[in-house]
Amino acid sequence: MKSENVAKLVSVSPNETESPSAQKEILEKLATGKRDQAWRLFIQEYQGRLYNLCFRMLGNYDDAIDALQEAYVQIDRSIGNFKGQSSLYTWAYRVSLNVILNFRKKRSNHDARHTGQELPEISRPEDDPDRMCEEKYRKHLVHQALQKLPREQRCPLIMHDLDGFSFAEIAESVGSTSGAVKVKVFRARKTLQRILLQGQEVPGFENVGKFQGETLKHLLS
C-alpha cells in the first residue's frame, strides 16, 4: 500500500500547509498582548486538523474532545516559548501528540465508541448499496480499520501517511529511530490493507450490508 493511497482513502492531503499569514498574525497578536484575539485565530486556523488528529488516534468523539481541550491548555501555557524552528502548526501538532500519548496511557479502555451521529446521513437510500458505502462511508470505515491497528503502528502511520511527517520527525516526536519508525509504518500499511480487504460492518446501518473490501482494491494497489 503506497502512502498516498492511505491518504486518498480518508480524503486528506498529506503535508497540508498552513497559511503563513495566519501564523504571522497569531504571533504578532501574541507579541502585542492581544492574547484573546490570537487564541481565537489559532482555534479558527488549527482546530479542525488538531481534532482530526485526536479522533484518529483515540477512536471516539468523547476522548478526542477531552484530549483536544487538554492540548489547548498545554499550548496556551507554552506558546510563549515557540521559537519558530518549525511552523506553528507543526509545533502545536507535537504538543497535541504528547497529550494524546499521555492520555492513552491513563485510559484503561480505548475501544472506539461510535454513534450514528458520527456517520454521514443516508440521503439517497435507493442508491446501489456498494456504491453508497464506498462513497459515503469510506472515511468512517478506514477510521474503523485504523482503530484495529496495534497502537505502536497506528501513531507512525497517521503521522507519516496522513499528516505528512518524515520518518525522522516522527522518530524525534516519539523517542525512536527513523529505521524503527519506517518498519512500523510498513507493517501498519500491510495490516491496514488486510483489515480493509476483509470487509466490515457499518455500525447503525447494518441494513445497508457489509462493506466489501474488494471495492477498495483499486485504491490499495
Q: What is the H-and-E element order?
A: HHHHHHHHHHH
Principal-axes geometry comes out as globular
CATH topology of the largest domain: Arc Repressor Mutant, subunit A
Tell me the name of the CATH class of the largest domain. Answer: Mainly Alpha
Calculate the terminal CA-CA distance, rounded to whole Å. Answer: 6 Å
What is the tally of beta strands? 0
User: Under the CATH scheme, which architecture of the largest domain would be assigned?
Assistant: Orthogonal Bundle
Summing up helix and strand content along with how strands pair, one would put the structural category as mainly alpha
> What's the story with the biggest beta sheet?
none
**Low-pLDDT sequence parts:** 109-126
Helix content: 55-70%
Radius of gyration: 19 Å
- What is the name of the CATH superfamily of the largest domain? Winged helix-like DNA-binding domain superfamily/Winged helix DNA-binding domain
Q: What fraction strand? A: under 5%
Instruction: State the helix count.
Output: 11
Average pLDDT figure = 77
**Number of domain modules:** 2
Lay out the secondary structure:
Layout lengths: L2 H7 L10 H12 L3 H24 L2 H18 L9 H19 L22 H8 L1 H10 L3 H12 L4 H8 L3 H21 L18 H4 L1
Outline:
This protein is mostly helical.
Summarize this structure as a short list of keywords or feature phrases.
single chain; 221 residues; mainly alpha; Rna Polymerase Sigma Factor, Chain: A; Arc Repressor Mutant, subunit A; 2 domains; 11 helices
